[in-house]
Amino acid sequence: MTAATPLLPGMPTDDGAQPVFREPWEAHAFAMAVTLHQRGLFTWPEWALALAGQIAAAQAAGDEDRGDTYYRHWLAALEALVAAKGASTADELARYRDAWDRAADRTPHGQPIELRPRDFG
């Protein structure tokens, strides 16, 4: 059996050469984009355009496009599209991202991360 070629060079694959997520957050970002699309926040062509624009901007800034940054572009495109659609602001997204970072930093490995009011400091 011949293995399929990964979608992007450097993207991880399973034993059957199917693309897989490197980290849980990548799967979560993927699921958020699909869910927001299904709920009507944006069309799939709008999503494709936002993601393509994010990747093009990253490449113009020097991203070598080895596949290891794909979901970082995915998340950046999702944040920009959510802000552009008025579902949240860029400031609010940054505030929550920073709060989750603080919560994760204080949480021992393997324990659930809990957001607390002080994380928004």
The biggest beta sheet is recorded as: none
Strand content: under 5%
How many extended strands? 0
Secondary structure: helix percent: 40-55%
The shape, in one word, is globular
Contiguous runs where pLDDT drops below 50 for at least 5 residues:
1-6
Q: Based on helices, strands and strand pairing, what is the structural class?
A: mainly alpha
Question: Mean of residue pLDDT?
Answer: 88
Number of helices: 4
Give, in order, the helices and strands.
HHHH
Distance between the termini: 55 Å
Description:
This protein has 121 residues and is mainly alpha-helical. It has a domain at 24-61 and 68-104. 53% of the residues lie in helices and 0% in strands. The chain is built from four helices and no strands. The chain has helices at residues 24-38, 44-60, 70-84, 90-106. Helix 1 packs parallel to helix 3 and helix 2 (44-60) packs across helix 3 (70-84). The longest helix is centred in the middle third of the chain and has 17 residues, at 44-60. It is globular, with a radius of gyration of 16 Å. The protein starts with 23 loop residues before the first helix and ends in a 15-residue tail after the last helix. The model is unreliable at 1-6 (pLDDT under 50).
Question: Which characteristics define this entry?
Answer:
mainly alpha; disordered N terminus; Nitrile_Hydratase_acc_put; CN_hydtase_beta_C; 121 residues; 4 helices; Elect_transpt_acc-like_dom_sf; Nitrile hydratase accessory protein
